Amino acid sequence: MDNEKWISLDGKVAIVTGGAMGIGEAIVKDLKGCGAKVAIFDMADPKEESLDENTIFVKLDIRDKEAVEKAVQQVVDTFGTVDVLVNNAGVTRPRILVDYYGEQPQYELNEKDFDFMVSINEKGTFIVSQAVTRIFFKKKSGVIINMSSCAGLMGSRGHSCYSATKAAIHAFTISWAKELGPYNIRVVGVAPDILDRTPANNDEKYRAQAYGRGWSVDTKPEEFFKNYKKSIPLGRPGHLSEVADLICYLVSDHASYITGITIPVSGGKSKG
């Protein structure tokens, strides 16, 4: 896709949470390729080549309200405004409700894991969105992209807590769209399903996921992708760039009438 010919984000300023790696890194790259200036909010450090005169990095925990408000003001002080917020930061720990198999109790959902996922995926999204929306409200324009997940739309075995947090993100999307539409602020959800492996998808995650599905904890990640190919009509995982391309479209003027929905990026995979 030739971004420069069709999608121009020249003059736009975007904040991307969790923008240092994985999907977030791809989103930052695409937004900049379309002409936007980008602020990365993350606990992890981005690659050095990601930073230039059109990019700033703020190291912060999105659950810290005071730190977030200061970071948003830093973006305004640096670039003059904020036009786009991509709520991409999120975490998952595959956990089952009860250790049905009696062999790996560490993969049973506990309060620590529950609070960790809820506090980042839900509370963090709320805190950043509230801080940025105060700016959008004053200027009567802006776009919020909420990263949900197909797990939040359909559920996922061994991911009940994560799925619940992403269902909450979908609910934020449709509710905030109703609240903010009268002020020319759009809110759109994006729900990826199976994508290319990222640093967050480490071996420990695959062990926990395998156990939750009744498989051996020694199941190799490659086996997951073999099974995915059977359940995805397009026959492959999605690429990070395909999610990023969609987001660039959604924050552009081409999508000016799209709000209040969550769009799956799933290769046709569904409950059926």
UniProtKB/TrEMBL annotation:
<dbReference type="InterPro" id="IPR020904">
    <property type="entry name" value="Sc_DH/Rdtase_CS"/>
</dbReference>
<dbReference type="InterPro" id="IPR002347">
    <property type="entry name" value="SDR_fam"/>
</dbReference>
<dbReference type="GO" id="GO:0006633">
    <property type="term" value="P:fatty acid biosynthetic process"/>
</dbReference>
<comment type="similarity">
    <text>Belongs to the short-chain dehydrogenases/reductases (SDR) family.</text>
</comment>
<keyword id="KW-0560">Oxidoreductase</keyword>
<protein>
    <submittedName>
        <fullName>SDR family NAD(P)-dependent oxidoreductase</fullName>
    </submittedName>
</protein>
<dbReference type="GO" id="GO:0008206">
    <property type="term" value="P:bile acid metabolic process"/>
</dbReference>
<dbReference type="InterPro" id="IPR036291">
    <property type="entry name" value="NAD(P)-bd_dom_sf"/>
</dbReference>
<dbReference type="GO" id="GO:0048038">
    <property type="term" value="F:quinone binding"/>
</dbReference>
<dbReference type="GO" id="GO:0016616">
    <property type="term" value="F:oxidoreductase activity, acting on the CH-OH group of donors, NAD or NADP as acceptor"/>
</dbReference>
<dbReference type="Pfam" id="PF00106">
    <property type="entry name" value="adh_short"/>
</dbReference>
